[in-house]
């Protein structure tokens, strides 16, 4: 399996090269050149453990990694999770909830970033190379990426987060990692500002090559690939518990999480519509509802990991929406850059509506959902998961699997306000307050960030 750019100007690359490249050199995102089908293997796949299933799916896309090595990488990546199921499914209040928060930073990003960190280390050792990771985070990606590569040989990591716009726990998780290869940068701006800086740094090809930049954001295909696995696993687990017409509800701001589900469906997973849940930063909901993909100001909400206006993985979906026409896709991305919006035809919107439905929440509804779901079931939702549960409760016309993207203890203020009780803290969170912290505040300026990276590699 080789990889191509959504914008069509880069030759084919191998899986290992795709992992190391992150963003394609023409500014596009990498995708496999074909979509393998497992439609005739679903009964067999349903019998597998999570790690075995991960091997069967990932090996279809990583032909240049020997079987023994890939199995070892997968086992190593998920040995840090608190349950061998990795992504278990529980049924509460008539809704299937897939818990994706059993990794070391208690967020769904661990599923992908524990694997990506080990892939980086494996490839760098093989090639006797070094890598400088630069990434942006709206909260969870940063800590998960840091925990994925902390202390690893031949890797430095620079994570940009919007100052004052992540939860206290998210900030402590990032800044309490004081390893010499970890650098936390608090940007005086929004997540979109931080993401723009990262993309611009990667777009400077000479700079990228000179300082050997690598990507951990979901622009890296390996991130999406690891997430595809839990859609298959979640579907199989829900079916075993009696689910019939399955729909996934996905709280998302960057489109990477739901794109993984879309790709799983293309591979043959028999899903009904995908439901995209957003908060007040609802550019993706506006797109699905009426084709309005236009920039607006970012609003701070109870679910900060979704406080995003420009979804970095949306381009991958647009590539398929444009029938894999790189020229048409490039024109849409150019339109976004010049006008702050993208236009869609009626035929394109019909295809969107065939694949997706959407639901937007407010802070008020998020808080209400956390309270009412707890009162009814005794189960505590984090505010991001509550956005998804709100969608499932409002639709109630299928068997909904809601992706639970973070542990409620990462957002204790919101949970306590809603339920009257502070969420129980796992040991990994409880110890954060007493740890030393390391963080640097930096201007919202591309050149300042590039200079900082250059001085610390």
TrEMBL record:
Among the GO biological process terms of this entry, one is: threonine biosynthetic process
Q: Where is the Tryptophan synthase beta chain-like PALP domain?
A: 93-315
User: Which GO MF terms does the UniProt record name?
Assistant: pyridoxal phosphate binding; threonine synthase activity
The pathway entry for this protein reads as: Amino-acid biosynthesis; L-threonine biosynthesis; L-threonine from L-aspartate: step 5/5
Q: Which UniProt keywords apply?
A: Amino-acid biosynthesis, Lyase, Pyridoxal phosphate, Threonine biosynthesis
Keyword check for Amino-acid biosynthesis, yes or no. Answer: yes
According to UniProt, the reaction catalysed is: O-phospho-L-homoserine + H2O = L-threonine + phosphate
Question: InterPro entries of this UniProt entry?
Answer: Ser/Thr_deHydtase_PyrdxlP-BS (IPR000634), Thr_synth_N (IPR029144), Thr_synth_N_sf (IPR037158), Thr_synthase-like (IPR004450), Threonine_Synthase (IPR051166), TrpB-like_PALP (IPR001926), TrpB-like_PALP_sf (IPR036052)
Q: Which family does it belong to?
A: Belongs to the threonine synthase family.
The name this protein carries in UniProt is Threonine synthase
Q: Which organism is it from?
A: Denitrovibrio acetiphilus (strain DSM 12809 / NBRC 114555 / N2460)
Q: Tell me the organism's taxonomic lineage.
A: Bacteria, Pseudomonadati, Deferribacterota, Deferribacteres, Deferribacterales
């Amino acid at each position: 399996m080789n990889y191509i750019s959504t914008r069509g100007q880069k030759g084919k690359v191998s899986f290992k090269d795709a992992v190391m490249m992150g963003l394609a050199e023409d500014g596009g995102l990498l995708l496999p050149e074909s979509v393998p089908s497992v439609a005739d293997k679903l009964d067999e796949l349903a019998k597998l453990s999570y790690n075995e299933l991960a091997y069967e799916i990932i090996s279809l896309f990583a032909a240049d990694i020997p079987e023994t090595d890939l199995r070892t990488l997968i086992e190593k990546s998920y040995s840090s999770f608190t349950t061998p199921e990795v992504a278990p499914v529980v049924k509460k209040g008539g809704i299937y909830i897939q818990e994706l928060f059993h990794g070391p930073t208690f967020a769904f990003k661990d599923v992908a970033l524990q694997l990506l960190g080990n892939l980086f280390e494996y490839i760098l050792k093989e090639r006797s190379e070094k890598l400088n990771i630069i990434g942006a985070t709206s909260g969870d990606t940063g800590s998960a990426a840091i925990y994925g590569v902390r202390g690893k040989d031949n890797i430095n990591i620079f994570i940009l987060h919007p100052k004052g716009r992540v939860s206290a726990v998210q900030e402590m998780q990032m800044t309490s990692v004081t390893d010499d290869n970890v650098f936390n940068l608090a940007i005086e701006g929004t997540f979109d500002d931080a993401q723009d800086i990262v993309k611009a740094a990667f777009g400077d090809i000479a700079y990228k090559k000179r300082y050997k930049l690598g990507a951990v954001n979901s622009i890296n295909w390996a991130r999406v690939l690891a997430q595809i696995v839990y859609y298959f696993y979640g579907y199989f687990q829900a079916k075993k518990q009696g689910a019939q017409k399955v729909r996934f509800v996905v709280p998302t701001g960057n489109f990477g999480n739901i794109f993984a589900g879309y790709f799983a469906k293309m591979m043959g997973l028999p899903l009904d519509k995908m439901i995209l849940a957003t908060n007040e930063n609802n550019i993706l909901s506006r797109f699905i509802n009426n084709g309005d993909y236009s920039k607006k100001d970012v609003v701070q909400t109870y679910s900060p990991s979704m406080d995003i206006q420009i979804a970095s993985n949306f381009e991958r979906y647009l590539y398929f929406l444009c029938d894999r026409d790189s020229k048409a896709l490039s024109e849409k991305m150019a339109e976004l850059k010049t006008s702050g919006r993208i236009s869609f035809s009626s035929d394109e919107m019909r295809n969107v509506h065939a694949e997706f439905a959407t639901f937007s929440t407010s802070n008020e509804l998020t808080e209400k959902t956390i309270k009412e779901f707890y009162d009814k079931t005794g189960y505590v939702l984090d505010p991001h998961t509550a956005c998804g549960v709100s969608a499932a409760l409002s639709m109630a016309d299928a068997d909904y699997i809601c992706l639970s993207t973070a542990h409620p203890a990462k957002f204790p203020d919101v949970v306590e306000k809603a339920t009257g009780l502070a969420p129980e803290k796992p040991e990994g969170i409880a110890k954060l307050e007493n740890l030393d912290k390391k963080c640097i505040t930096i201007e919202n300026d591309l050149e300042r960030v590039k200079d900082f990276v250059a001085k610390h590699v």
